[in-house]
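Q: I'm writing up a methods section and want to include an example of the input and output format. Could you take the sequence below and give the corresponding predicted C-alpha cells, formatted cleanly so I can copy it straight into the document?
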Amino acid sequence: MAIARPLRVGTRGSKLALAQTEWVVKALLTRHPDLRIETVIIRTKGDVIADRPLREVAGKGFFVKEIEAALLAGEIDLAVHSLKDLPTELPEGLTIAALCNRLEPSDALVVRHRQGQADWQEVVASLSTDARIGTSSLRRQAQLKHAFPHWQLCELRGNVDTRLRKLDEGQYDAIVVAAAGLLRLGLQERIACLLPVEVCCPAAGQGVLAVEVRSDDAPILSLLQTLDEWDVRVEVTAERAATQALGAGCHAAVGALARISGGKLHLWVAAAQLDGSQVWRHHAVATLPDNPSEQLKVAHALGKQAADALRRSGYR
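A: Here is the clean output for your methods example:
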C-alpha cells in the first residue's frame, strides 16, 4: 500500500538513539525507496532526570512514555526504541511491528586506558580487587556484587558518551554497558571483554531494535513487516515471557537471554538479591516446531517454565 505523506519517526535524541533510528530509516528506504521519512526527536523523563539512580525514578517506561504518548496522539507514525527500554506490557492501542537488527546482547566491561578485546578472566584479573566499577543497572550491580564482592559498584548515569567521558576522567576504573550500544556507535575498540551469561545475564531484549506503531495503522504495519526478523521475535518472546512472569521491571535484578541454535531454543534466566548475596540461575531448552505460530507458543511457555524454575529454587 503506497504512503503519500512523509513518515514521522519518533526517537530520543542521544547519539545511540539516533544511530538506531538511522538504521531503521535506511532499512526502510532500501526496501521502499519512494518513501519520505522525517525524524522527530522527543525528550523523555529518563533524558530529563539524568542525575538520579534509576531506582529512585518512579514508574515504568521512563525512557519511552513521552514517545508513546506522541504515537497515540498521531504526532508520529512509528517509534524506534531499544527493546530493553520497553515494558513488557504496552499501552492499549500500540504494538511492536518489527523486532530487528539484534547485535551482541552481552554486557561489556570497558576499562580505563585499555583498548581492544581480551578474555574476560584476563581483564578481570587486571583490575584491583577494590576497583571502582560504574553501572546504573540494578541487574548488573547485583550480579557483579555476587561474582566480585570486593569491587566497588558505583552509580553511573548518562548516555554512552557521558559514561565513557566519566571513565576516561578517572571517576571509575571500569564501567559496564551494553555491548550493542558501543557497536552501533562504532566504538567496538572500547570493549575490553564481554561478560559471559554465567557472570552477568543481560536484560531481556538487549541489543534488539523495536519499532512501535499504532495497532490499527494497517499501512504502517504492512510496511514494517519487511523489517521484522522472525528468529529475533522468537528469542525475545521467551526472554520477555520470563521477566514478565517474574514481575521484573527496571527496579528488579533480573536478566534473560535466548538463542536459537540447531533447531532448539535456549534460554538463560538469572535473578539476584539486590545486595548480591544470592543469584538464582536457570538454563532451559526447547525444541522448536516447524510451524511459526507454534514457535511463539513454545517460546512463551519456555519463558514461563524458566521463571517457575527460579521461583521453585527460592527466588521471590
